Structures are given as structure tokens and as C-alpha cells.
Amino acid sequence: MEKFKTLTGVAAPMPLINVDTDMIIPKQFLKTIKRSGLGKNLFDEMRYDDDGNERPDFVLNKPQYRDAEILVAGENFGCGSSREHAPWAIKDFGIRCVIAPSFADIFFNNCFKNGILPIALPQDKVDILMKDAEKGSNARMVVDLENQTVTTSDGETIAFEVDQFKKHCLLEGLDDIGLTLEKASAIDTFEASAATSRPWV
Amino acid sequence: MSPKTLYDKIWDAHLVHEAEDGTSLLYIDRHLVHEVTSPQAFEGLRMAGRKVRKPENTIAVPDHNVPTTPDRLEGIKNEESRIQVEALDKNARDFGIHYYPVNDIRQGIVHIVGPEQGWTLPGMTVVCGDSHTATHGAFGALAHGIGTSEVEHVLATQTLIQTKSKNMKVEITGQLRPGVTAKDITLSVIGRTGTAGGTGYVIEYCGEAIRGLSMEGRMTVCNMAIEGGARAGLIAPDEKTFEYIKGRPHAPKGAQWEAAMAWWQTLYSDDDAHWDKVVTLKGEDIAPVVTWGTSPEDVLPITDVVPAPEDFTGGKVDAARRALEYMGLKPGQKLSDIEIDTVFIGSCTNGRIEDLRAAAAIVKGKKIKDGLRAMVVPGSGLVRAQAEEEGLADIFKEAGFEWRLAGCSMCLAMNPDQLSPGERCAATSNRNFEGRQGRGGRTHLMSPAMAAAAAVTGRLTDVREMM
Ligand code: SF4
């Protein structure tokens, strides 16, 4: 997995609540058996009209946000299905960090597996970042995972919380299957004891 | 010993390892797999030269992509869908996992097949690369959806890295009124708590009204725990649970059954267990409901009117405005005046035999409204066969419904069953998101009986008027 240490980039404002995974990547794109190539269909139905032309008023179609690497959004971002195609599409588009007041559980976990940092902050802090994002491409934010801070283009620094294990994996780009396999003997022990305590399983 | 919730008990029984930072390795008893979220995971295993650790506890079935018309047995026409199903065929074969292919009568929606075949048992941990895995919580199993990376993790290690959720109790007291079903309970709970209200929690549903539900009804309730944001929904097992399981193909037998029962009977929340959040609804207060917007929390009794954006606060004002525009509705309009084009009865929420019985009871001897498109998609081949045996299929066909083969179908419209832009559907599924049932399609969620009533009148209808 790609490491995440610091990120300096343009943030796109998307002040919408309950952005669901069907919006992020509609189901017709889930038929792929690959992980890559989904970026062009990120937010497909909001981004393109029925004829496949870009809708100029959609945030990621605006010139100043086409290269956004950060997304600032409303509460309950990523609700809905477990499709990992959602973070795959976000990553493939080039976004590596999503900031919102809250996230849906499965989406939140899926981000970390793909080198994307989801940051949950109180609404008033998100409001500050949303304002900053609205300034466009001249305003670049800095996300520093090591120090757990987001810095606005005016230099205002906001601290965020992150699970220490997930932080460690992101910073080092660790594959957690490899980490778990290091505990193979604990799994063996568990299975041996379950074989007597719950033999019907 | 300190008192525990049911969730605590299942968690403790599956803990392989706990790190100092609170990250835990949890053992997974059952892993269900379908064609859409698994190809990349199997590919990852191949690339790393890994095997499936417990193929005997891994069960695969194609459901999301499969057509539901009889010609599917001649092959899936859509190339991408076919490739995905073929990939699952091959992965199941190569890795030696249990498999129910498209032409097997036991094929169906993964969350219907698991319980039906006795794979889902009380006290288990169950995962699947699908958010509605919460369904299996109806058996007192800790069941939740995972992403594809986690699918690969479980395939390789039979464990999942987890942090423990908080405990939330949702109690439904008393009795339900006539015409009110499990679907109305679960939608009403989401209406109360919001789609993010359960984030960070595992919900246990309890109370007299929950006890009164059949296993099918309990699965409907737990199925939508995820729509309330919760990681999982649980219902403590009881006699009804054991009765349902007994004799299923993969349920324990003989001495194993006795041993299992001894443990299953300890699976309940202790009286003085600690709850981080408690929500109580009176069964008598729950009405037959429908959704009006594009989030499952946009739910109201059928006797109500479409709300105005100004009725809300915060970010919901804009969200409601956007939803009304998308849905083509005006504030103040009576919900029961909303005309529909299509009816979809099916999905892992409401595609079980009891759901089909409830819908058939309403349409029996009647015809669907002229010009309406209506389909019934049984949740599994076995549900379909049973419905045919009970004469339900004939009732539906005589009323004008299409009688389909099992699959997810128009719940998410990955197969050819889709809404066109602007088409309005009364659906028994679980999501009314923009574009969920087809680009531009408009979805109203409701119970099977309510959907059947809507099919007859051609508009959203209070089922109580037809009982
Ligand atoms: S029926 Fe719908 S919700 Fe259930 S598994 Fe299939 S697509 Fe998902």
C-alpha cells in the first residue's frame, strides 16, 4: 500500500450531507474485476449529464478543482454499501484525504486499506476548512499525518484524532494481512481451543 | 463476573489477540462471498501465493449481477456481468470453497441463502463483502459487512482486525397494530435515529414486539441496521431461532446440537449490562410507513404529507431540497396521492417466504393497476419453489406480476432490472439513494404488503384500507 505522510494540495468543497457510495461510484461500474481505472467515473451521475458530458457546475469539473487531492464534505460521508470501489475511485481520481464531520463505518475502514486518510472533525472545524476550500486552487491545505494536523492556506492549524494502529499502517504503507500472519500461532491456538468448545462451527 | 451484553459475549468468545492500543484480532466463523466484491480479493491471494485458510467455512453464491429471467440459464448476456460470475465460478473451484452456482435451486441472495442452509448460527461471527450482512444478526450472530481488502484478509487469515463498537439497545415495546410489519419497525427506528445515529454502535433489538416477530421478520429488522449507520444489529436467540435452525442442511445434529444449544441458551444480554445508548419505541405508535426522499431516514407514516425543506435544520435543509427535486415531489402533497409506475417485491430485506405471503394476501383475486410494471423476485430458488407450491406464484401471475428467478435484481439494478429516469417505484428493498434502482429512478421504500397495495391502486396506499 502507498504510504501517507504529508499531503499538500487543493481541497474541493462538497458541502453535502449523507454522500452515499452509490453517488461516489454508481453500481454499473462495480462490474470490473480490477481495482484501477475507476477515477473517471467518480461521482459519475453528479459529474456527467445523461449524454456523458461534464456538468460544468459540479465541483470536480471546475477548473480550480480538477486536480483536487483533498475533499471536504458534510456529515455521514460514504454511507451505504461496503463497495471498496468507492475509495478505489476516489484514489484513482487523485484524492488522498477526505475531511468530514462523520463517516460511515465500512467506508472509513476501507479508506485506510487504500492509502486514503479520512479525517473526522467537529462541524465548526469542518466549516473553517470548507471556507478555505472554497477559495479555489490558490489555497492549498497541508495535511500532516505524523503530527495529526491540517493547516489551512492562511496558516490556521487544526488538530485531528486518528486510531494509532491505522496511523502506523498508513505512515509505513503496511499490508495488514502480512501483519496478521505474524500472529499465525495465536490463530492456530484459537482454532484448537474452539474445536473443543464449539465443535459444531 | 461483570454483566455483559450479547455483543460483549460474542466478541469475547472470538478474541484471538488484543493489542495495547485496543486493536483486536477477531476470529471469523463464517465468510459469505458474492461475485461483485470478491474478484480483487481472490486475485490478491493468487498474487501473494496464499490459500483460503478455512475453505470449509467459506460459502459463495452469485446474486448481485445475475439476470432474473428464465433465459439466464442459457448464459448471461451482459459481458461484464458474465465475466464476474465466471470469475466466482473459477475462484470457488480453485480455492475449494462451498458454492451454489446460478443453476442450483439453492442459489439466491447471499443473506437469504446463509440462514436457509443453516450456515448462520447463534453466537457466530459472520462477515461478507456486503453491507447487509447485518441480516444474520437476527440469529444472535455478530454479522457485518466488510470491504474487499477485508474479504482478502478473512480469506487468508480467517480473522478480522477490529476495534470494539459501543452498545446500543433499541427496544420496541408492546404489540404492533394490524398492517404494521418488521419493515415498518426498522424504517421507523431509522426515522428516529437518522442514518448516522448508529455509527460506532452495534445495536441489539429487543422488547415484546421484536420477540413477537418471526425469524423472517427479525431478519428484515436486522438487515437495515446498517441503514441506521450501525456496524451490526443483533437479536438474542430464543425458541423461534432454534426451531428455525433445526434440521437445516448445515445445522449441528445429535450430540453437537445438544452442545450448541447449551451455549446458545446463554446468549442474551445480562439484566444489568451497560448500554451506551438506549432508544425505545412503542409498538402501538408505529404506523405503516413509506419513504419520500433519497435517504432511508426520510420516512413518514403513509397518512402524512411530503415535508418541506424548512421543516428541517442544519445540512438536512439542503439535502431535503435536493431530495424533493430529485423525487419530483412538492411539500404538502399527500403521500397517498403519489402515483407510481413500478412495483418491486424482493431483496434481502423482504424476499423471504413470509414476505411473499404477505404481499400475495393483498393482491389475491385482484389485478395490478393498468399500465403498471410489477415484479416479484424471490430471495432464493428455494423460496421460489415454496411459493409455487403454496400457490403464491399463481396469485401474483394472475394479478399481473412478473414472476422471476432469484437474485438481487432491482434492489441495486446491476442486472437488466432497472428503472428509467423519472420512473417511480414502490420497492421492498432497503435503499432509496439517488440512482440506486437505475439512473434517475425514484424509489419509495415500504413493506411487502404496502408494495402490494400500491400495485393494485397504482399509488402509494395505506394497506389498512385493503385489509
Ligand atoms: S438484495 Fe440488495 S441489499 Fe441485498 S445483497 Fe442484494 S443488492 Fe445488496
Automatic annotation (TrEMBL), chain A:
Coiled-coil zones: none
Superkingdom: Bacteria
CDD domains reported for this sequence: IPMI_Swivel
Signal peptide stretch: none
First-tier enzyme category under EC: lyase
Pfam families, A to Z: Aconitase_C
Any single GO BP term: L-leucine biosynthetic process
Pathway recorded for this protein: Amino-acid biosynthesis; L-leucine biosynthesis; L-leucine from 3-methyl-2-oxobutanoate: step 2/4
GO cellular component, one term: 3-isopropylmalate dehydratase complex
Single GO MF descriptor: 3-isopropylmalate dehydratase activity
UniProt keyword list: Amino-acid biosynthesis, Branched-chain amino acid biosynthesis, Leucine biosynthesis, Lyase
Subunit structure: Heterodimer of LeuC and LeuD.
PANTHER family found in the cross-reference section: 3-ISOPROPYLMALATE DEHYDRATASE SMALL SUBUNIT, 3-ISOPROPYLMALATE DEHYDRATASE SMALL SUBUNIT 2-RELATED-RELATED
Role of this protein: Catalyzes the isomerization between 2-isopropylmalate and 3-isopropylmalate, via the formation of 2-isopropylmaleate.
Protein name, UniProt field: 3-isopropylmalate dehydratase small subunit
Source species of the chain: Roseovarius litoreus
Automatic annotation (TrEMBL), chain B:
EC number annotated for this UniProt entry: 4.2.1.33
Keyword set includes Membrane: no
GO biological process, one term: L-leucine biosynthetic process
Top-level class of the enzyme under EC nomenclature: lyase
Residues that bind [4Fe-4S] cluster: 348, 408, 411
PROSITE patterns reported for this sequence: ACONITASE_1, ACONITASE_2
NCBIfam families noted in UniProt: leuC, PRK05478.1, PRK12466.1
Subunit architecture: Heterodimer of LeuC and LeuD.
Protein name in UniProt: 3-isopropylmalate dehydratase large subunit
Organism per entry: Roseovarius litoreus
